[in-house]
Specification:
By secondary structure, the protein is α/β, with parallel strands linked by helices. It contains ten helices and 21 strands.
Length: 393
């Protein structure tokens, strides 16, 4: 297998930006990082690409993806091409790793979707796109009063037997589970999930601060799309939002599309929350990358897309998003006034750490997977590499 030199780039390392740097890729991993003065030679067997002084950053890791490019994760049971279609769409926007995220659905339908997505992951259906690292189960064990765009008719109390069935159907692919800790026996379920190596997230919930603290003690370490589908911050009851902002055990997801969270509130979160405990996500649905219209669905519910905003046709609740990670990066920089280097960990290392993938994902370091993105001066995606293989550009 040929090696690859990416030359003359501003390389965003964990602790600094290496101007005029070079990265050597061999066997799908980062084998060497050199400064302009190192003069590391290439061989006749190496491919060389001159980045022309552009930004070379770690590939984006998105923990919350329902779909994109017209395909939905829930279609995986019937459509063998759905996972690959989603993976290729998001790779074009800088995502190199992602979690296929399911919706609340009747028991049999959800089990078949989990099995279909896991099967697609095993056969490498995402080749040529972003690598699917596993599954995120968003539901069905949620609070129906905070359903958001989840189908309230399919939400149910925590059922350990069903949870075990979903883990078995996922064949080790389930990496993240969103649940409401105040409903049913969910608090006891958190410990069992953590014991299986699954990250547990609080979401679609109206837990009070005391319940959130008990969830943390049980092993919860994540909050699904902070501010959305949860009880708001109150000065006499901080609830999920207040507790999440001050407890370092919790990493919070933010959907920075300008619809889900006001730009000033995004700035507030980056001001008060530990920066290494913020993970940007898209919550993208099948309509991402598609034209405006009313012919879209999410979790069996009809969705309307207008000027990039996705809402349920009945009731008007926000229904996921049409956001991509490159756009999330640009908007977060605009909202907060922070630099590219300051915002990058929220799209790379922080989410990778949350699912235990930071040993090989999330930063440009020797030995890690060569998941790399080249950004232009306007932060548009010029090229995307997954395991050293160009999948976009």
């Amino acid at each position: 297998m040929k090696g690859l030199w990416i030359r003359n780039a501003n390389v965003y390392l964990p602790d600094r930006v290496l101007a005029g740097g070079s990265v050597y890729v061999s066997g799908g991993r980062i084998a060497r990082i050199c400064g302009p003065e190192d003069g590391a030679p290439e061989t006749a067997d190496d491919d060389v690409w001159d980045a022309g002084g552009l930004h070379l950053v770690p590939g984006f890791v998105d923990l919350h993806v329902h779909g994109g490019g017209g395909a939905d994760v829930m279609d995986a049971a019937e459509d063998e091409g759905a996972i690959g279609q989603i993976a290729r769409f998001h790779a074009a926007h800088g995502t190199t790793s992602w979690l296929a995220t399911t919706m609340t659905a009747p028991r049999r339908e959800l089990a078949r979707a989990v099995e279909g997505a896991a099967r697609a992951m095993e056969r490498g259906a995402a080749d040529g796109g972003a690598e699917m690292l596993g599954l995120h189960l968003e539901g069905p064990f949620l609070n129906p009063r905070r359903c958001g765009a989840q189908n309230p008719a399919a939400i149910r109390p925590f059922d350990r037997v069903e949870m075990e069935e979903l883990l078995e159907r996922g064949r080790g692919a389930v990496r993240l589970v969103t649940l409401a800790p105040e409903c049913g026996d969910a608090l006891r379920g958190i410990g069992a999930l953590r014991g299986r190596g699954v990250t547990v997230s609080i979401g679609h919930s109206e837990a009070d601060a005391a319940t959130v603290r008990r969830a943390i003690e049980a092993g919860a370490s994540h909050v699904t799309h902070l501010f959305n589908a949860m009880n708001p911050l109150h000065h006499r009851e901080p609830g999920i939002v207040g507790t999440a902002l001050i407890r370092d055990e919790l990493t919070v997801e933010l959907i920075c599309d300008g619809f889900h969270v006001h730009p000033d509130v995004v700035r507030l979160v980056f001001s008060v929350k530990r920066r290494d405990r913020i993970a940007l996500v898209t919550d993208a649905i099948a309509a991402a990358g598609m034209p405006d219209g009313d012919g879209y669905w999410l979790g069996g519910l009809p969705v309307i897309v207008k000027e990039g905003k996705t809402v349920l046709r009945d009731g008007g609740n926000l229904a996921g998003s049409c956001l991509t990670m490159d756009e999330a990066l640009k908007r977060t920089i605009a909202f907060t006034g922070l630099t590219l280097a300051e915002v990058l960990p929220a799209l790379t290392l922080n989410p990778a750490r949350q699912i235990g993938a930071d040993d090989r994902k999330g930063s440009i370091e020797v030995g890690k997977d060569a998941d790399l993105v080249v950004l232009g001066p306007d932060l548009s995606v010029v090229r995307t590499f997954v395991g050293g293989v160009p999948v976009h550009g």
